[in-house]
Each structure stands twice: as structure tokens, then as C-alpha cells.
Design a protein that fits this description.
Blueprint: E1 3-6, E2 15-16, E3 23-26, H1 28-31, E4 46-50, H2 57-66, E5 70-75, H3 83-88, E6 91-94, E7 112-115, H4 125-142, E8 147-153, H5 163-178, E9 182-187, H6 193-203, E10 207-211, E11 216-217, H7 222-233, E12 241-245, H8 253-264, E13 269-273, H9 275-285, H10 292-298, H11 300-304, E14 309-310, H12 315-321, H13 331-353
Parallel strand pairs: 4-5, 4-7, 5-6, 7-8, 8-9, 9-12, 10-13, 11-14
Antiparallel strand pairs: 1-3, 2-3
Helix pairs in contact: 2-7, 4-5, 6-8, 8-13, 9-10
């Protein structure tokens, strides 16, 4: 494999994702699959999960193991090893998408790649989410991977001004252009992310940060996302399809905070940040090269100010996958279970901490 990325105007000899400003320059001869004759057949249950330690990735790993898959997890070398993945029964291999030479060995004997990875907050968005993914996809194609599952963002094709959303859309197009058998899943938002953002600060009586934007998001439980992913993986009708997974209802930030207040039984200390302030901060950080990555992540303020609804009708998807809508967890039930369990534990700790009078 040889590959590079460029923002220049596309050249006829280059492989380009149509409609995207990002351009991928490929050595077609090097990137083409090489026939090595009949080898050992790869079992359809052999799965590589990329980004296995993330919020979604760990649920994908758990679901795959529960359903009898042989799971291999691609994990970056790290000071704290991902021992919990091994404890669950998965195999862990060290590799780094920002170092393409480490990727091919992780794909040997793999039938399906499930790509949950995204860059760390301190990294440039392009490093993992674009350049690393291009290398991974090209390796998958060259090594004859049978299926590629990619998680994207709902409405990413409508917001090219947001770098991460543009990269997700371009990656979708790049996968489609390779000829791989794929399933692309666009997601709206995770319920798990609301715990640290709203639930915990309310319980600890700390400030809850929100915006005045009317954006609505149909949050979904990552366990439901993982379950539907494997239903789609076994369904031939989902082959080479772009699916959107959305929760039963779209919520505004204020509605989520109000729900948490009711379930916690206490008011939140809400600090509202106007979207205009986020937009101004983004413009300011774009003036300095060392803050460009911050500006890219603040680009979501453009989405927050556009009255966007991150939701989609799910009836056709449920019908395609043979899933009942009633089996999808609602945000009310998810947060209710969380607060009930936490409040019970807090009451238990409070009871244990009571001491009788002590006499000297």
C-alpha cells in the first residue's frame, strides 16, 4: 500500500470521493487486492473491532462475544492495558491507525471489520478520522475483508462546514467507491454521554453547562446500537446499505435537564452558553495554528445554531431488520434506571456512615 492525502484540486489519476473536498491520492497498483491463491477459509464469525475501548466499541465487543463471535480488538499501545477486554474473552492486538504499517497484521484471519474508532480530543481530527481510516479501508480491501461496518453521523452530508462531519461523509463515499461489502450506520447521539454531562453534575450539585440552541437529538442506548448492528450484519438486505439509527424521541438540551431534575428530585445549577459565544470562540481560535484543532471541534456550534433535528424515521429500518420498536430503550427509562440505582446506593452509603455517640 501507498497512500497520501491532499486538499488540492483532484487530478484525473486520483481516487476521489465525489462531492467531498477531501482528496485521497492512491497508488492504484499497490492498493489493488493481490491474488495469493487458495488459502485457509476465514470464518464468518471472525470480527475485528476498531475502537473497542470507546463508549460504543465496548458494547459492540460485549454483544459480539455474547452472540458467539471470535472477537479481536485493535487497541493502541497504552500505559493502562485494556485488560477488561481480555477478561471478557476477546483477543487484544496493538496497532495505531496513525501508523499505517501497524494495520495489516491485525487483519489476518478476519472476516468482518467493525469500525467504532474516532480520534482523541487532543489529536487533530484528520489524523485518525481521515488519514487513519483511509489506510484501514485500503488495507481491508487489499487483504480481502468480507464485510466492513462503519459508524458515521446523521446529517453529516448536510454540514460540510463541520470538519468531523465532512470527514465522516467523505469516508462513507470512500468506502462505497472501494467495492467492499459494507454497512454504514449513521448515529444521532448516545444516552451514555448524558450521564457525565447532566446526571452526575446535578447529583453533585455542580454546574450543568447547556446552550440556548433548539437542536433536538434522538439519543439511543449503545447496547441497542450494538444489538441492531449484529442484526444488520446477519441480514443480507442490509448489505451495501446506509442505515440511520435513532432513538424513539428527539430531545432538546433543556428537556433533558428538566427530566434529570425530576428524576433526581433536585434543581440543576444551569449555566447557559449562548451559541453566538461558541461561534465567536471558534472564529477566534482559527486565527492561531496551535488552536486549529479546538476550532474544528467548536465547529459543532454551527450545527447547534441551525435548528437541526438529529433524528430519523425508524419504521423502514425496523421492518428491514425485523426489530420491534417497543424493544428499543427510551431515554426516560434509561435515566430512570440510572437515577434509581444511584440514589439507592447513595442512601445505602449514607446509612452505613451514621455513627452512634462515642464516649471517652
Amino acid at each position: 500500500l501507498s497512500w497520501a492525502t491532499s486538499c488540492a484540486r483532484p487530478h484525473p489519476a486520483r481516487a476521489v470521493s465525489s462531492g467531498c473536498r477531501l482528496v485521497v491520492t492512491c497508488n492504484a497498483q499497490a492498493a489493488a487486492p493481490i491474488s495469493i491463491g487458495q488459502g485457509t477459509p476465514v470464518r464468518p464469525t471472525s470480527v475485528l473491532v476498531v475502537g473497542a475501548t470507546g463508549t460504543l466499541g465496548r458494547q459492540v465487543v460485549r454483544r459480539a462475544l455474547d452472540e458467539g463471535y471470535d472477537v479481536r480488538c485493535l487497541v493502541r499501545p497504552r500505559p493502562a492495558p485494556a485488560d477488561f477486554l481480555r477478561d471478557w474473552g476477546a483477543t487484544v492486538v496493538n496497532a495505531d491507525l496513525s501508523k499505517p504499517e501497524t494495520i495489516p497484521a491485525t487483519l489476518v484471519g478476519v472476516h468482518t471489520v467493525i469500525d467504532c474508532a474516532t480520534g482523541r480530543p487532543e489529536e487533530p481530527i484528520r489524523t485518525v478520522d481521515w488519514e487513519g481510516k483511509v489506510a484501514l479501508i485500503q488495507c481491508a480491501k487489499a487483504m480481502g475483508i468480507q464485510k466492513y461496518v462503519f459508524y458515521s453521523i446523521h446529517n453529516c452530508d448536510k454540514h460540510p462546514e463541520v470538519p468531523l462531519m465532512e470527514i465522516k461523509y467523505c469516508t462513507e463515499r470512500f468506502i462505497q467507491d472501494t467495492g467492499l461489502d459494507y454497512t454504514i450506520i449513521r448515529l444521532c447521539g448516545f444516552m451514555q454521554g448524558l450521564i457525565g454531562q447532566y446526571a452526575v453534575p446535578i447529583l453533585e450539585e455542580k454546574s450543568v453547562w447547556g446552550t440556548d440552541a433548539p437542536t433536538r437529538i434522538a439519543y439511543m442506548d449503545t447496547q441497542d446500537v450494538a444489538r441492531l448492528t449484529f442484526v444488520a450484519l446477519r441480514n443480507e438486505k442490509a448489505s451495501k446499505k446506509l442505515l440511520t439509527f435513532a432513538g424513539p424521541r428527539a430531545w432538546t438540551t433543556q428537556e433533558v435537564i428538566t427530566l434529570c431534575e425530576r428524576l433526581a428530585g433536585q434543581d440543576a445549577n444551569v449555566t447557559t452558553v449562548p451559541v453566538a459565544v461558541l461561534r465567536f470562540t471558534r472564529q477566534l481560535t482559527r486565527f492561531f495554528q496551535w488552536t486549529n484543532d479546538v476550532a474544528d471541534r467548536l465547529a459543532f456550534s454551527e450545527v447547534l445554531s441551525s435548528d437541526t433535528v438529529f433524528s430519523a424515521p425508524m419504521n423502514e429500518t425496523y421492518q428491514l431488520l425485523g426489530v420491534e420498536a417497543k424493544d428499543i430503550l427510551t431515554l426516560e427509562k434509561y435515566l430512570q434506571d440510572y437515577f434509581s440505582n444511584i440514589l439507592k446506593k447513595l442512601k445505602g452509603l449514607k446509612a452505613q456512615s451514621k455513627q452512634s455517640d462515642i464516649y471517652f
